[in-house]
Amino acid sequence: MKEIKNMASRLELFFDQWLIEKMEKLNFKLHNPQPEEVVIEFNKDWEGSTCYYLTVFKDGEIFRMYYRGSDFDIKTESSPHESFTCYAESVDGINWTKPELNLYQFNGSKKNNIIWQGVGTHNFTPFIDTNPSVKPEERYKAVGSGMLKNKPVLFAFVSKDGINWKQWKEEPIITKGAFDSQNLAFYDNLRKKYFEYHRDFIIDEKDKKYRAIMISTSEDFENWTDPEFIDFEDSPLEHLYTNGVMPYYRAPHIFIGFPKRFVEERKKGDHPYGGVSDVVFMVSRDGKLWKRYNEAFIRPGLQPERWINRNNALAWGMIETSSKLNPNQKEISLYSIEAYYIPGTRLRRFTIRLDGFVSVNAKGDTGYFVTHPIVFDGDRLIVNYSTSAAGLVKIEVMDMEGKLIEPYTAELYGDSTEQVVEWKTGQDLSKIKGKPVRLKFTMKDADLYSIRFK
Fold first, then answer.
1. Which among 1, 3, 175, 188 is least buried, having the fewest CB atoms inside 10 angstroms?
2. Residues forming a β-bridge with 167
């Protein structure tokens, strides 16, 4: 008996074959975000050329950003000041301010945006704890690395307001790993547990060491499973400097990640430090087994400073912003470091359409795919798609044997992130709700990003 996929009313993205039983003359296409404006320059005295490991998230009516404030003098190979954790905020995701918080002194003044100093500042990474049983004074949590008995460990921090922080406990929460990158944690409301991802090193059969990603989970944020390396379906070992893992906010049953890929043997230009980086994209349905797209999600591009060691890393997190092309249209903003190691280090915004990471793509020839048998809730089908002027997306609802169910056929052209499908007799699908059906998509010069029933 064929497996029936229950879509319910979830948004399903076309990252993988989960929905697809048969596909002809189509392929999965990775899309690239577009560079926008510089949103922050790290030009304060307590910041500098090595500001890094950023975190962004929406909190009520504002967007919060956390980052390492640090500097490094290449000539002397020393830091002119210690590292701090700094804070910025925004109401639109484009214009960011650095508030004077009056918490920590720098050069005799508290007029700065420093929110933490000491253990963990190298990679202090906060999140909002959405566990229903979280204590109000611990609603904001963070993880950051430190040393214990000359061994790297991961400590936890808590806050009631996201500004005033304290170390949660003297003991670390996790001790197995290198932790020398951006480690992160979050509460998963669907799976009702905490996930944590950090860096360690894995050795291949030729004794070559690679930067790699480990996962650990916890029911209570205190007792964690023994960390283990995540698995990839069909990708080679490469240096993954960060991980950027998060549940995709529009479809939280799916994990996505944006590791910074580090190619240590390459060197571009005359900068003293070698190694170049880009960003790749990966996706998982359980957080442990991942599909990684091996081409770059963000290339260094035409700016020479983005070809310098350690550039291009994405901030952890993404937020919805209004499109400049169409203010009524929402899109996703991501934030990437550039000019690292150069005075004037800055943060550039990148944008991509909602659900627009990967699509089922049709080129000039017509192709099609058929889904596994599915059942759904709701009475309308909504698609996120794009075609050329001559392209098309034709949709047919079929029974288990592949016979068309009248009158459920429609043909679309255009571009929309939320198009309600009009069948021959209107939008209503309530007569077949809860019954196993298949969907057939015939496409030409088009992309299909996601679908959902609503």
1. 1
2. 157
Buried b (16+ CB within 10 A) or exposed e, 382-402: bbbbbbeeebbbbbbbbeeee
CATH superfamily label, 34-353: Glycosyl hydrolase domain; family 43 (2.115.10.20)
407 preceded by a cis bond (ω within 30 of 0): yes
Look up the CATH number of domain 5-30+358-453.
2.60.120.260
Entry pTM: 0.96
